[in-house]
Write a structure and sequence with these properties.
Strands 1, 5, 6, 7, 8, 9, 10, 11 and 12 form a 9-stranded antiparallel sheet that branches. It contains 13 helices and 18 strands. It folds into 4 domains: about 150 residues, no CATH class; about 80 residues, Orthogonal Bundle (Arc Repressor Mutant, subunit A), CATH 1.10.10.10; about 60 residues, no CATH class; about 80 residues. With about 375 residues, it is of the alpha+beta class. Helix content is about 30%, strand content about 35%.
Length: about 375
């Protein structure tokens, strides 16, 4: 898992809106489905007989009238049926037919809302929209100089928008009407948090005053700030491997081997590990800077064959932990222990004990290492 955190400012507007909220399989859908199955027509008596037998006929009539007000049914120009008691026949509109077939109903809400917008290209790329949050405005209307609503409302008029509901779940809404003017508010400073694991990404917006940092793996938790909660959250398709590669490429530049997915570095006797954790102090991803992040198990390799030879020799000098009776046994050991380097520099597989003994003999404190390489010689001596 990788978690990126950075600062972001969201524009905030107070605006009068009419919204439609998507609802799956509500009671109204059953009525629309019955009308669809009946050739696009339905009457209050059919609602009572087939769906709501305990409901008075007048109440069934009111339900159908409500659906007519919402644009799902129409009774204009309708005839009455041939029974002794005539009743209005309602007809499915295009909107009603679509709702019946998709089993999706749009509930209308009107009121004063707080509208949060992002101008960040990265945010819009990840969320698929500049609209971050649409929430009811609580309290009296704000006082300020009205201005025209932002263009995004025109762009997303009657289109589906994903937002987070008050329970923290994702819901789909449509903006079907808005007033021409709105009240602009002070921008809201937030922490943008991008969490990616496997092929899934979660985008969170936390108000700075409410931020509670999540520690990176193997790091101590950051001090907790004053908390008011999560502002918005989105889910998106995002590859952890791709994000990791982009971060490494941004940090190490040409030293990052995109084909072999390793960092090529000079020989350093103080760090012989070829798998390391890397802390990026100011990582850049897709042109945006973030706070420190730790990447685990990053592969490193010597920059060239000469560096690789020094790396291998130093590792063997410090880490040989057994005695060898012949050359074949030694080479099997080397291939097992140093496989990550030898896979990239196979010519070093021919490195023999005699060559190492000659080099190690020039070092201080090499007696026991050489003894392990020349076990047979020392025992026969």
């Amino acid at each position: 898992m990788i978690v990126l955190r950075g600062k972001e400012k969201l524009a905030l507007y107070e605006v009068l809106l009419t919204l439609e909220k998507e609802q799956k399989n509500p009671p109204f859908v059953a009525i629309l489905k019955r009308a669809d199955e009946g050739g696009g027509e339905i009457t209050p008596a059919q609602v009572r007989a087939d769906l709501l037998p305990a409901l008075p006929l007048t109440a069934c009539q009111n339900l159908l009238s409500r659906l007519e007000d919402l644009g799902y049914l129409s009774s204009q120009g309708a005839r009455t049926n041939g029974s002794s008691k005539s009743e209005t026949i309602f007809y499915l509109t295009d909107k009603g037919e679509a709702a019946a077939q998709t089993q999706t109903f749009w509930q209308t809400e009107k009121g004063l809302y707080d509208l949060y917008l992002s101008e960040s290209t990265l945010v819009q790329e990840l969320t698929g929209q500049p609209l971050i949050k649409i929430s009811p405005h609580y309290g009296p209307p704000s006082k300020g100089n009205p201005e025209e609503v932002p263009d995004v409302l025109h762009d997303y008029w009657n289109k589906e928008v994903r937002i987070m509901d008050k329970e923290g779940h994702e819901e789909v809404v449509r903006i079907v009407h808005f007033e021409a003017n709105c009240i602009p508010m002070e921008p809201v400073e937030v922490t943008l948090e991008i969490e990616v694991a496997g092929e899934e990404g979660t985008i969170r917006f936390m108000e700075v005053s409410s931020q509670k940092s999540m520690p990176q793996p193997n790091e101590a938790p950051a001090p907790e700030a004053k908390s008011n909660g999560l502002l918005a959250k989105f889910h998106t398709s995002l590859s952890e491997e791709s994000v990791r590669e982009e971060l490494l490429k941004s940090k190490f530049g040409a030293s990052y081997d995109e084909v072999k997915k390793v960092i090529r570095v000079p020989f350093d006797p103080n760090n012989l590990a070829w798998v390391r954790d890397v802390k990026l102090e100011k990582p850049t991803w897709r042109g945006v800077s973030f706070g420190p992040v730790r990447l685990e198990k990053v592969s490193f390799l010597p920059a060239n064959e000469q560096e690789a030879r020094m790396w291998v020799e130093e590792w063997l000098f410090r880490n040989i932990d057994r005695y060898f009776w012949d050359e074949e046994e030694f080479r099997t050991y080397v291939e097992e222990k140093l496989r990550p380097i030898l896979d990239h520099y196979p010519e070093l597989k021919n490195l023999g004990r005699k060559e190492l003994v000659e080099k190690f003999s020039k070092r201080e404190n090499a007696f026991y290492t050489i003894a392990k390489l020349e076990t047979t010689t020392y025992l026969t001596y």
